[in-house]
Amino acid sequence: MKSILNKTHLAVLASVALAACATSSFAETLKGRIDVANQSNKTLVVAGITFQTNAETDYSEELQAFANLKQGQKVSVEFDRSGSNVYTAKRITLEE
């Protein structure tokens, strides 16, 4: 009986771990030059991909804020993808 309980617990734990992995998002990174930095809606286009920013977006020390992003700057964007075409910038770093 104890063996059956242990196997049941193991199966439940494995199911929970699998579900957690399936629903979590993993950050991706893209490097490129800024095509557009839209100050009014705080979106950024790099390599043809539009990134949304929000209060949680972190900026490198050189940038400090969205207002310092300019067309042509080379940046690295760490982002989460949700849905099919929604990209949210987690961190934006100025590249050299």
TrEMBL record:
Listed InterPro entries: DUF5666
Out of the domains of life, which is the source?
Bacteria
Instruction: Using the record, list the residue span of the signal peptide; answer none if the entry has no such feature.
Output: 1-27
Record keyword Metal-binding present: no
Residue intervals passing through the bilayer? none
Span of domain DUF5666: 31-92
Q: Please name the Pfam families in this protein's record.
A: DUF5666
Q: Is Repressor among this UniProt entry's keywords?
A: no
Keyword annotations for this protein, in alphabetical order, are: Signal
In Swiss-Prot or TrEMBL terms, this protein is called: DUF5666 domain-containing protein
